[in-house]
Amino acid sequence: MAQILLVDDDPLLLEGFEQLLQDEGYEVVTAASGTEALDRLPGLHPQCIVMDVRLPGMDGLSTLKTMRSSPSCPPVLIMTAYGTTDTAIEAMKLGAFDYILKPFEIPKVLALIARAVEAGERQKAHDSEGGETGEESVCLVGSSVPMQKLYKAIGRVAPTDVQVLLRGESGTGKELVARSLWKYSPRADRPFVVINCVAIPDSLLESELFGYERGSFTGADQARPGRIEQAAGGTVFLDEIGDMPLSVQAKFLRLLQERQIERIGAPNPVPVDVRIIAATNVDLEKAVQEGRFREDLYYRLKVVTLWLPPLRNRLDDIPELAQALLARHAAHIGVHNPGIEKDALDYLASQLWPGNVRELSNVLQKVLVFSDGSPIRRSDLVRVQDFDRHAIGGDKAPAEGSTTPEPGSSQPPAGEACPSPGKAAGKPETSPDAGRILEPLIDPLLRAGGSAFDHCMDLMGRAVVKRALEMADGNRSRAARMLGLSRPTLLARMERYGLKVETRIR
Length: 506
Hints:
Blueprint: E1 3-7, H1 11-23, E2 27-31, H2 34-40, E3 48-52, H3 60-68, E4 76-80, H4 85-93, E5 98-101, H5 106-128, H6 145-157, E6 164-167, H7 174-183, E7 192-196, H8 202-210, E8 211-212, E9 224-225, H9 227-230, E10 235-239, H10 246-258, E11 260-261, E12 270-271, E13 275-280, H11 284-289, H12 295-301, E14 304-307, H13 318-333, H14 342-349, H15 356-369, H16 378-393, H17 421-424, H18 439-448, H19 452-471, H20 476-483, H21 487-497
Helix pairs in contact: 2-3, 10-12, 13-15, 14-16, 15-16, 18-19, 19-20, 19-21, 20-21
């Protein structure tokens, strides 16, 4: 019998809800406060926790945060009579399975609880087998609007068995999303197999995916099942599927259509039961037009498409991301986590990150290696990034004793005149020299290639909109007038850039 921990300070609701769940066949344990729930939890084994937001003493969200600090915490459903954006986002940010709005419809609530209990049972089974380690234990981080949309989509899609296509720029965390889809799926107790299509030579990809029979080619001394067949009952994550050779695409299409594979040299197809999650940063539409990707496979793959936001569209997540990545790298390397100062976080949030989260992770790992144990400072990050820029761009490294200022420094390089007071005030310069201010930001993007122009426009647009909102004290109408935009256009831009600004009352 599944156990549910029910937490609410309303005795009438607690009694009624308890009876309802008992009638559904659940074992119910109750608590009247967050503190009581935390005290009772170690001696219990619930598959699900249902908890109100408004609790005496420690509120529901604070209790949720404490509960989720334990890796064995079961799915938590948050109940609230206040369906505000802040409550919903905060609940999902802290790891809630979902939230229930009061007053609620009983059939819908019971269905939601049933899904949460099922997820809790899968989690317990997974934990009993040893759980995840290393890279697999890393979770998605971020509370920005784009990430909240992604979390909700994962929560809806994961329990199903539909094929998912993950799209987005390199370094945005497609494998982490794939692991989340697997972790919260009915297949979580079965294998999760990662196959990178570009990491395997074209000549070997077919045999790696589908396997082969003995004697099918020179060196095939014995039959060998492919990696898809080895994942029976589980999930296969095919990364960089946009680069899959056409010769293999035909066989892969048969897998999606008929749930069968053909080993090389086998007389008959082999039935397989796997869920396919694919990912690419290739423009598939363009690849189809150019004949590099099968159109029928394209439509088969995109049953559900999830777009992963680039880091430049969720810069507000950088402090949280940086802290999490720094802790992860410190544990991996086996060193003390020195922490990171606010000026360093502000500096990270001002960068473009064409390599997205992967680039941010690499920078933090590198600066940690060279750290002296004190909190990471802005100067530490600048030094590491400057070294990378010179190496990638072919620039000469600054000579010892160079007077080249750090990015953002008010001191001009030696030999350059300071702007006159007349130029500093009033309108910005419109001469070509004015573009020099942006060169430290633009140059890394141009060297990285790709959509440099779009990246620059997004970064500039976000900065301008954010500053206008700050100057308008969060008043959207006033900010829109400052920008020369309509209010709906401003709101659309805020959503695109993941901006959320509270109106300040003075």
